[in-house]
Design goal:
The complex is a heterotrimer of chains A (about 290), B (about 280) and C (about 450).
Chain A lengths: L3 H33 L2 E3 L4 E3 L5 H8 L1 H33 L5 H9 L6 H13 L5 H8 L7 H4 L1 H26 L3 H9 L4 H28 L4 H6 L9 H11 L3 H31 L1
Antiparallel strand pairs in A: 1-2
Chain B lengths: L6 H28 L4 H4 L14 H9 L2 H32 L5 H10 L9 H11 L5 H25 L3 H9 L4 H30 L3 H4 L8 H6 L9 H21 L1 H7 L7
Chain C lengths: L1 H19 L7 E8 L2 H8 L1 H7 L3 E8 L1 H13 L7 E4 L3 H7 L20 H6 L1 E2 L2 E2 L2 E13 H6 L10 H11 L7 E4 L9 H11 L16 H17 L9 H9 L3 E7 L3 H4 L10 E5 L12 E7 L7 H12 L2 H10 L16 H6 L3 H10 L23 H16 L5 H18 L3
Parallel strand pairs in C: 1-2, 1-3, 7-8
Antiparallel strand pairs in C: 3-10, 4-5, 6-8, 6-9, 6-10
Helix pairs in contact in C: 17-18
Classes of the chains: A mainly alpha (about 290), B mainly alpha (about 280), C alpha/beta (about 450).
């Protein structure tokens, strides 16, 4: 349907977006790449432009690296599982005809509007705090010892905070998908007397698979760079140091820009491997 | 809807849904309530719910210690500005990808999305150096551009998936009628695309409003938005739950209210191609 | 369409803000980067006086959490910034940054500043080769704060100079977990300025040190093992639940709520445990930081100070401000507005000769004595190549100590043993020092 004329016009229209993103990607990335081969420690006033692969060797060989990769994967997987399972359930619930549907939806999506710093501060101080947090009152009220979430279950606590923020997003996308489900198909299966569970398993879930992949893709992009929640709650202690956080420690806390840049490059490569893998799946889904 | 539903069933689902909704909303509600308590009521054991002497002293205290109106203005300018700029660049790109797809279209789209994987802290030093060199540190324009760039892939992706759902036959019909490219975009596509654009705009305002890495590290005074405002309240000395709550409410209230009022528009286009 | 109006509204707002931004006239504007603590907030509330005296200088504040502030400043200065005119930094940064040529010398402050009135130890810590690079805003050592009523109930009496053994016993005797009274509160939150400030100062009194004279890390020494084990055991016996998340602020809240028997922390906390926010203000006693009889006490030395970066464009205005904020008249100003007890402590000798202050501040005598016994140039029992009591004045220290602090915090949380924590600390310190070229 496209004419030669509209094809060239199309190319012009896409050019600005490609150009700015190319500049955005290449300029800082090239500088980071350059720094990653340098001994660059501003606090010492050291700048030696070429020290080979020393920074990479150091970054890979430190015991912090592997554990940071592990923590990152745990965190992302944990948050994804909660938001997707919770999101599907919530979407199905909100799809039911209920009283005050509009208000419930408003309540459910509210956490999505809260900035990460605020939600981390609120959860840390007003819920998880072992002396004055609400959970401690709850535990005491039930006759149990207050539980120190942030040091005893640090990863879980952060997962809870982040999942709380992202559950609304997953719910909204999945809800749209649920609503687009062909109700005739559902009715037919209901007439056949198919039990609710198998209806879910064989009709609803396959229908949602595309929406679920989309949620996974978009959320992973954001979750790989979680920062504020860790910074505010544990500061990377108790095994909550993700790859992003490790790079942050190297660059800003230790002020070793060379080492941190090497870490940054490693993080980019790892993230892109995950991205390519994810996008293959989604890309296939988009074709159909 | 032809499914038969008894009132009893409806009541049951209603209760369940409300319970979930309130659970999700509770942290915000609690922050809201705490912000009106005195510091000692805020940590009272057992917790006090609604019946206490409501006070505005925390809001006054927060107000005295910081320049809230300025931070609010900066947040508005930065989030709205970066979104408008992003939309201006993304609409043509998404349009051409959706309606005049080439062999490489999908690769370009995926590549765009992959630029979002750049860990911010890895490029912090380069970016600070560049900003210094261009003399734009602590300026709103810098944040508008940076936030536009980090969200552009999401904007393009969202618009693309929305545009793709617009049936191509309509375009062909309009072309038969002799419409040129300009009027095709202006009179045929734009009205159909508007809900998608609106929802993209809303989502991006939210994302830009809440961005808390670049907005803190690239600003000092002039361009510091609400994220920097809240960062100054994160660790004061002594009892501070009530003041922290007040500052938190001040930081999130504008976007929360905007989000609630526009949630229908937000939801309408928020599919990312999830529905076929 | 409703949405279009909403968008128009937002755009209109944005335009309004853009035009409203040009307000100030010809005055010089200086930007002050500061931390969010009590004395700084008091200073901000007294700005009326400064504006009256210097109407030609506008002051903008950037208030941030300590770590964020430090990183912001370091990035700004090391990239040749110029965003700030006055920096709030501590005794750790001043010598390093001064050495790098990043700070303006303050030797030319006017005579009425009375620079000789500054407490010698503090002044020494802020000078490099005789050049004063920062003006102290408030100084602190650390000491023991305790509840006199609980001590009495336990049948004990706090000596003026307790030992760690005594502190541990007294803490155990005061602990009453059913009534939420913890015998000891101490920093546990990971960070070089949090748990590591306490533990490094404490280790000095146990005869430990960070590095030997060849810059070899010493976490495998017996003295460190004694320090950490003692700390962990004491905290387990008598410390609060969740101690591994408690920094200065959290412990202050606990103490103010009456949930601590003994709290070993900064002398600058003195004014906050006896002020109106404190429920136990009438029952607080003060003693020196504990020791083990080896000749060093577990007290540190620190001063939050104001400095001017060489990249500042408004150095004269910045000096005027520093002269006002840390000069001799500032104390009287605070005293008038908030009472003598709220005067920033620990910077000037004259304050400790002022009867008004001594009467209002029950912690004054202990503060000045504690500050007198801390010796940054000779902090440990065995000789060391570095200066600094609760820190090691090398650029790499902050990064290393924060990671070591995370190891110790996770030991406190029960996730690893003291031995594992020390082994990890030793390994990562060796690694980082190797990277730093030692």
């Amino acid at each position: 349907m496209a004419t030669a004329h509209s094809k060239s016009a199309a190319r012009w229209m896409i050019a600005p977006a490609v150009f700015v993103l190319l500049v955005w990607m290449l300029v800082p990335l090239c500088m980071t790449l350059y720094f990653s081969f340098a001994d660059y420690r501003p606090l010492r006033g050291t700048f030696e432009p070429w020290i080979g692969f020393d920074n990479y060797v150091r970054f890979f060989s430190s015991s912090a690296f592997l554990s940071a990769v592990g923590t990152t994967l745990w965190m992302v997987t944990g948050i994804l599982s909660i938001t997707i399972i919770g999101g599907v359930l919530m979407a199905l619930l909100l799809d039911r005809p209920i009283f005050g549907q509009g208000i419930v939806r408003i309540l459910v999506i509210a956490p999505f509007f809260v900035m990460p710093t605020v939600s981390a501060l609120v959860w840390k101080n007003m819920f998880f705090n072992v002396d004055n947090g609400l959970f401690s009152y709850l535990f005491k009220g039930l006759g149990m010892q207050p539980y120190d979430f942030l040091s005893q279950a640090p990863l879980f606590s952060i997962v809870v905070i982040v999942a709380w923020q992202w559950l609304p997003f997953a719910t909204l996308i999945l809800l749209t998908a649920v609503q687009s489900l062909d109700s005739e198909q559902l009715e037919a299966s209901e007439m056949d007397g198919a039990p609710a569970l198998s209806r879910f398993r064989f009709i609803i879930l396959p229908h949602l698979s595309r929406a679920i992949t989309v949620v996974i893709l978009i959320q992973t992009i954001f979750l790989l760079s979680i920062f504020a929640e860790i910074f505010v709650t544990t500061n990377g202690a108790f095994g909550t140091r993700t790859l992003t956080y490790l790079v942050y420690q190297r660059v800003l806390e230790s002020q070793n820009v060379g080492l941190g840049s090497a870490g940054g490059i490693v993080a980019v490569i790892l993230a892109n491997i995950i991205a390519i893998f994810l996008m293959r799946i989604v890309g296939k889904n988009l074709d159909s | 809807m032809a499914r038969a539903i008894t009132t009893k069933q409806k009541m049951m689902w209603t209760v369940l849904a409300w319970a979930f909704g309130l659970l999700m909303f509770f942290p915000i509600l609690w922050t809201f309530l705490t912000s009106f308590k005195t510091e000692s009521t805020a940590i009272a054991d057992p917790p006090v719910w609604f019946f206490f002497d409501w006070t505005l002293e925390n809001y006054t205290a927060v107000q005295e210690r910081s320049n809230y109106p300025k931070a609010l203005m900066n947040s508005i300018i930065i989030s709205v500005g970066s979104t408008i700029l992003g939309i201006l660049i993304a609409v043509p790109a998404a349009w051409s990808m959706a309606f005049v797809p080439g062999k490489r279209t999908k690769d370009v789209l995926l590549w765009m999305l992959s630029t979002k994987m750049l860990p911010a802290v890895g490029v912090l030093y380069p970016l600070v150096l560049l900003a210094k060199w261009l003399g734009v540190m602590d300026s709103r324009i810098l944040l508008v551009v940076v936030l536009m760039l980090i969200n552009l892939p999401i904007i393009v992706w969202m618009l693309y998936t929305y545009f793709k759902e617009i049936p191509g036959e309509i375009l062909e019909a309009s072309r038969m009628d002799g419409a040129d490219l300009r009027s095709e975009i202006l009179y045929v596509l734009t009205p159909m695309a508007l809900p998608g654009i609106a929802s993209t705009v809303l989502l991006n305002i939210i994302l830009a409003w809440n961005e808390a890495f670049w907005t803190i590290l690239l600003t000092t005074v002039n361009a510091a938005p609400l994220t920097a405002f809240i960062a100054s309240f994160s660790a004061p000395e002594g009892l501070f739950y009530a003041k922290l709550s007040a500052a938190s409410m001040m930081a999130i209230a504008p976007i929360l209210i905007m989000g609630w009022f526009s949630q229908k528009q937000l939801v309408r286009g928020l599919t990312f191609g999830a529905v076929k | 369409m409703k949405l279009t109006t909403a968008l128009c509204g937002a755009t209109a707002l944005a335009t309004m803000a853009a035009t409203g931004a040009f307000a100030d006239g010809h005055a010089t504007t200086i930007t002050i980067a500061t931390v969010n603590n009590g004395d700084m907030i008091t200073m901000q509330s007294l700005m009326g006086d400064f504006n009256e005296k210097h109407p030609d200088i506008n002051v903008e504040w950037v208030t941030l959490e300590e770590n964020v502030l430090r990183q912001n400043l370091t990035t700004d200065i090391s990239t040749g910034g110029g965003a700030y005119d006055v920096l709030t930094i501590g005794t750790y940064e001043v010598p390093i940054w001064g050495n790098n040529g990043w700070l303006v010398s303050l030797n030319d402050l006017p005579a009425e500043y009375e620079v000789d009135d500054l407490i010698p130890a503090i002044r020494g810590g802020l000078s490099v080769d005789g050049e004063l690079y920062a003006a102290p805003f408030y100084g602190e050592s650390s000491f023991t704060m305790y509840r006199t009523d609980l001590m009495e109930a336990a049948g004990l009496e706090m000596p003026e100079a307790p030992t760690w053994e005594f502190i541990r016993e007294a803490a155990a005797a005061m602990t009453d977990r059913d009534n939420e009274i913890n015998g000891i509160c101490a920093r546990g939150k990971a960070g070089w300025g949090e748990n590591m400030a306490l533990l490094t100062a404490m280790s000095n009194s146990f005869g430990a040190r960070w590095f030997d004279e060849d810059w070899q890390a010493q976490f495998d020494s017996e003295a460190w093992s004694n320090t950490l084990n003692f700390y962990l055991d004491m905290m387990e016996e008598s410390g609060p639940a969740g101690a591994a998340n408690n920094g200065f602020n959290e412990n202050l809240t606990l103490f103010q709520q009456g949930k601590c028997g003994i709290w070993i922390d900064a002398t600058s906390a003195g004014q906050f445990v006896v002020n109106d926010d404190s429920t136990v203000a009438d029952q607080v006693g003060f003693a020196l930081a504990p020791d083990t009889g080896l000749g060093k006490r577990g007290n540190w030395l620190w001063a939050w100070s104001l400095a001017i970066p060489t990249s500042s464009q408004n150095q004269d205005a910045a000096k005027t401000f520093i002269n006002w904020a840390t000069g001799p008249e500032y104390s009287a100003l605070v005293a008038e507005a908030k009472g003598w007890v709220a005067v920033p402590p620990g910077t000037r000798t004259s304050l400790y000769e002022n009867d008004n202050y001594l009467n209002a501040a029950p912690f004054a005598a202990m503060t000045v004595e504690s500050m007198g016994t801390a010796d940054p140039t000779n902090p440990t029992v065995d000789p060391v190549p570095y200066t600094g009591v609760q820190f090691v004045a090398i650029p790499e220290f902050a990064g290393i100590a924060t990671q070591v602090g995370q190891q110790f915090a996770s030991a406190l949380a029960g996730q690893q043993t003291a031995e594992e924590a020390l082994a990890n600390a030793q390994e990562l310190t060796l690694d980082e020092m190797d990277a730093a070229g030692y």
